[in-house]
Amino acid sequence: MVENKSMQLLLKALHFGASDVHLVPQQDKYTIHFRKYGKLFPSSHIPIELGDRIISFFKFLSSLDISERRKPQSGAFQKEFLNQLYAFRVSTLPSIFLRESVVIRILAQNARLPISSISLNPNSAEKLIQLVSSGQGLLLFCGATGSGKTTSLYSLVNYVSEMLARHVISLEDPVESNQSNLLQIQVNERAGVTYATGLKAILRHSPDVIMIGEIRESETAKIAIEAALSGHLVLSTIHAKDTVNCIYRLLDFDISLDEIRQALIGIVAQCLVQVGEERKALYEILSDVNLNEAIVATMRREQYLLPHSERLTSQLASFEVRKRNASTTF
Length: 330
Fold this sequence. Notes:
The protein is built from eleven helices and 13 strands.
């Protein structure tokens, strides 16, 4: 019964198009919410006893300690639904009611979306394809959590793997989507595989293209720069407010402006917008002449602004205006 109820919950989430399932304990029940397009939608309530048993079942599938309810845990399992393989990433957190709150992230495996189908602007897709067609260099993505950066990275590395016949190795924490045409390595700090040590090992494995889930600290940033300067194409994400501030973020990681100038081929900021039943990406791309001007301005300690029409905020404002105008047209 518990297994059937658990599978029915996941299937219901898939039919809804949810990216996450939330089981939140209350005093006398569990509330279930589905996250879709960044918003939480209430789904149902289940009795406390059934909720406890469903959570224990998901923990069992994820190889977590079923008896441990006082500490946060995380794990994952895979299951096939509707002829599609999915990974379910499970995260538990103890609550004040001496019960666990659980979030299950739903990740379609081996899903391949062309960058042209992701991008709202065809010109942006063409520019990104042009950048990853470079033989070497560092391409960075920034944006808010949930803005689709990893989806864009997967799309681009799949392009260079399939269309350009290049050997791609990814280093991720965790691997969000299994891709059959990529060699994917997962960060495992307990086993000594950090971003820095994993990246060093990857460089000895003859890659053409390296995808790094995130540049978090100086050592990883320095190795990524070295890899880009030594003939590899490196794609990664980095936490920064916008494209120009990515340059300052690299400076914070003790990367010199000269190294930035030589290695960096582009910085991309992105956000998602709702178009009908789909979500599309808007991209602010800092490259070529604009990138050189931004680096020179940084060297001179001057402020640099992209041309107004290319800024992400301007594109977003323009999209909202078009959307409002379309909604008032009969």
